[in-house]
Amino acid sequence: MSFSFDAESPSNLSEYSVSELSGSIKRTVEQAFDQVRVRGEICGYRGPHSSGHAYFGLKDDKARIDAVVWKGSMSRLRFRPEEGMEVIATGKVTTFPGSSKYQIVIETLEPAGAGALMALLEERRRRLAAEGLFDQGRKKRLPFMPRVIGVVTSPTGAVIRDILHRIADRFPVHVIVWPVRVQGEGSGNEVAAAIQGFNALEPGAALPRPDVLIVARGGGSLEDLWGFNDEAVVRAAAASAIPLISAVGHETDWTLIDHAADQRAPTPTGAAEMAVPVRADLEATLAGLSARLKGAAGRQMDNRRQALRALARALPSLDQLLALPRRRFDEAAAGLSRGLQMNTAEKRRSFERVGAHLRADLVAVRIRDRRQHLNERIAFAARLTERMAERAGRRLAAADVALRGYPGRALVQIRHDRKRVAALAEKGERAMLADLKRFRERIGAQNRMLQSLSYEKVLDRGFVLVRDETGAPLKTAAETGVGRSVTLQFADGRLAAITGEDASTLPLIEQAQPSRHVRLRKRRTEDDETPQGTLF
Fold it and tell me: Whole-angstrom Cα distance, residue 473 to residue 17?
């Protein structure tokens, strides 16, 4: 028996196209893995794409699977994914037929236990602390009595109400609230932007710059408070020029912003108590200090008054102080006449001694010496006068020679100056004519404008201007009255007139047709009166 095989005989297997096979695989995978939870480490995460989707991978020590988070799910995540974070992803597995790959479409994402988040938080804390963001030397003192307080928190929670109520009870001041999200994706960026926005306000602007900031949120789990562990929030708090109080969570809750803030409050209410003092306590303290100051001033005055009395008792009386000077004065007065007589006698004896040494020959010798000295001075003055006259004569001769050539030089200078004056006069005349022409043109233009705007042009067209007794123009018929003296100004003169009754009582001669402008305005008024709904 022999068998023969035909190599070209058809197979009994079904034939698929590539698209059909890829679609079948896709449906099989999605039906088998419709909802799965996968635990792994995030790898290749570069943040959300420009479209809002996020593409990364999940891996363990043996395998790796691609992952994608669509834009709608990305906004609902409770914390932001980070490279190297161990997470538990919930979603469905699907395939991408264009490249024969499979991936998990993540709907929810949560950290793989609190230990992973704590490890990530501790690593971030050490890194930021190494940069000096938590140093105590960077901390700023809170103002004792701020005028404006800025609050960064959710505008709908109980936190802002507690803060406002506490501030109003202790010391009412102006509070500015910057509304932000305090939980979920993007909350950290909003808080950082709010801190930077408050610092960007200029002093003295329409919106006042706060003197102190409060970043507040109520209590919650580690995942709920994760936005305040964001690196952008920590850096914004450390760079804030305005003193900042962190009031995130309860007393046992700690976030990284607590380390970077200038002051950490256990609760939002505690932050309000740190920000402002108690007004009643300040008033009581002020009253006590005022009373102490008044008492101290009174006691000081009493002590000084007693010391003054003691010093006054130790001082001598007026008679005792003047007794010795009075005695010296009496003694000096008694010896004055005797001293005057003795001084006169002494001067007389001195004069007699000097007169005894005077002789006529000595006086003649002194007079002769003085005369000889005077003659020498006169001869010196005469010689000096002669020399000065000679020098003056030489200067006059030199001046005479110079003056003889001066008329020629003066004539040349005069001719030159005459030409220059003529040129300047011609130039000035041209400039004056140009200015006059320009001024004449300007005045003509202004005159034409004045004529076009003058009411007299209106009178030329047949209108009349009505004035009262004082010359003031009357604009309405109600201003005239009956029997009032008015002046009618026409284009060619004025007439006096007396007002009469209302023209409406006279018979109608001809009803003037309203102008097109009046008809349009009337129609527009009627249209305006037509009932019409409102957009509001």
Answer: 99
Q: Which two tokens stand for residue 439?
A: 């001024």
Domain boundaries, the chain: 18-112, 141-277, 344-446, 454-497
Angle, nearest 10°, between helix axes 114-130 and 231-239?
30
Q: At 312, list the tokens.
A: 């006054």
Tell me if residue 54 falls in helix, strand or coil: strand
β-pairing, 148-153 vs 174-179, is: parallel
Closest CA to 249 of 159, 166, 162: 159
- Under CATH, what is the fold of the domain 18-112? OB fold (Dihydrolipoamide Acetyltransferase, E2P) (2.40.50)
- Contact present, 160 and 154 (Cβ < 8 Å): yes
Terminal-residue alpha carbon distance, the chain: 100
Contact yes or no for 91/104 (Cβ under 8 A): yes
pTM above 0.85, yes or no: no
3-state secondary structure of 507: coil
pLDDT digits (tens, 9 = 90+) for 196-215: 999 999 888 888 999 999 99
Beta strands in 98-205 (DSSP E): 101-111, 148-153, 174-179
Positive/negative CA dihedral, 269, 275, 280, 285: positive
More confident residue, 61 or 306: 306
Place of tokens 């000084």: 304
Q: For 120-124, 190-194, 322-326, 361-365, which range has the lowest pLDDT when averaged over its residues? A: 361-365
Decide if domain 141-277 falls under CATH 3.40.50.2300: yes
Contact 170, 276 (CB under 8 A): yes
| Long-range contacts at 121-125 (CB < 8 A, ≥ 24 apart) | 121/222, 121/229, 121/256, 124/229, 124/231, 124/256, 125/256, 125/259
What does DSSP assign to residue 479?
G
- Report, as an integer, the average pLDDT of 304-327: 82
Q: What is the DSSP string of 175-206?
A: EEEEE---SSTTHHHHHHHHHHHHHHPPTTSS
